[in-house]
Design a protein that fits this description.
This protein has four helices and six strands, in the order αββαβαβαββ. By secondary structure, it is an alpha+beta fold. The longest helix is centred in the middle third of the chain and has 28 residues.
Length: 154
């Protein structure tokens, strides 16, 4: 975990940003991999650089961290990066969107296509609606414009 923190601090230093407050929690839910949930606390201005535009900056930073960890021999680890708990808040918003969309699909009997969203957001929708046996979801399109379609189970 100290290696992850050091890599993050070096990236932010190289970018000319302030030193982030790093909170790392180990999650043992996957049997064959170590999972590290990393939340960075940044100033609102710095955080906005990473979470605007569908959180593309956050996803890119997470990818860079994964590559650097792999080069450090930590390829058996899985890292989930969050900034100012953005993903957690967004997850709660998406759960509400999923529930409301399912209600509308049931009422109208018509499929609804949601806005384009990154993979982690689509996954939240899929997982939430998988709990509902009369609703089916699928992702369509190509990145970065991939969308979720919600429909009644045929």
């Amino acid at each position: 975990m100290e290696e992850i923190k050091k890599i993050i601090e070096n990236i932010f230093k190289a970018m000319g940003l302030g030193k982030p407050e790093v909170d790392i929690k180990k999650d043992n839910t996957l049997k064959d991999k170590e999972v590290f949930n990393v939340n960075l606390e940044l100033s609102p201005k710095e955080a906005d650089c990473f979470v605007k535009d569908n959180s593309e900056g956050l996803s890119a930073l997470q990818h860079v961290l994964r590559v650097l960890l792999s080069r450090q021999g930590l390829s058996q680890s899985f890292l989930v990066l969050d900034i100012n708990s953005y993903r957690e808040g967004r997850k709660n918003e998406l759960i509400d969107v999923a529930i409301e969309t399912a209600k509308k699909v049931r009422r109208t009997k018509k499929a609804i296509t949601l806005e384009p969203m990154p993979a982690f957001e689509r996954r939240v929708i899929h997982l939430k609606l998988a709990e509902q046996p009369d609703i089916v979801t699928e992702s369509i399109g190509e990145e970065p414009k991939r969308k979720v379609v919600v429909r009644i189970y045929p």
